[in-house]
Design brief:
15% strand; 109 residues; alpha/beta; 7 strands
Length: 109
């Protein structure tokens, strides 16, 4: 997450400090909770991954399904209304803005 903090500081000219990013950037907070829920999801722990995803959505307005695949240095700027579905695959060094919806309408195997 240290590398992600640096990435956010490079991409967002309004960022002042790492402290500000950690406590005042909902995009960072949503991704942090996603990383925890994704880890639980991979180990097939029931209900807890979705509970953390719900908590993140409630706090940040950003919905990320624990089954999504997200690379390193992912930054959501002004993230209200962002939805990332279970089938989404996001590579490294991606920066997105509000109102983005990613995912398929059906499961892809």
């Amino acid at each position: 997450m240290i590398e992600t903090l640096r990435f956010i500081q490079q991409k967002d000219p309004a960022s002042v400090s790492k402290f500000e990013i950690i406590f005042c950037y909902p995009g960072f907070q949503a991704v942090l909770l996603y990383r925890l829920s994704h880890w639980l999801y991979q180990y097939k722990i029931p209900a807890l991954p979705l509970l953390f995803a719900y908590l993140a959505r409630f706090i940040t307005g950003i919905e990320i399904h624990p089954g999504a695949t997200i690379g390193k240095n992912f930054f959501i700027d002004h993230g209200m209304g962002v939805v990332i579905g279970a089938t989404s695959v996001i590579k490294d060094n991606v920066h997105i803005y509000h109102g983005v919806t990613l995912g398929a309408t059906r499961s892809i195997k």
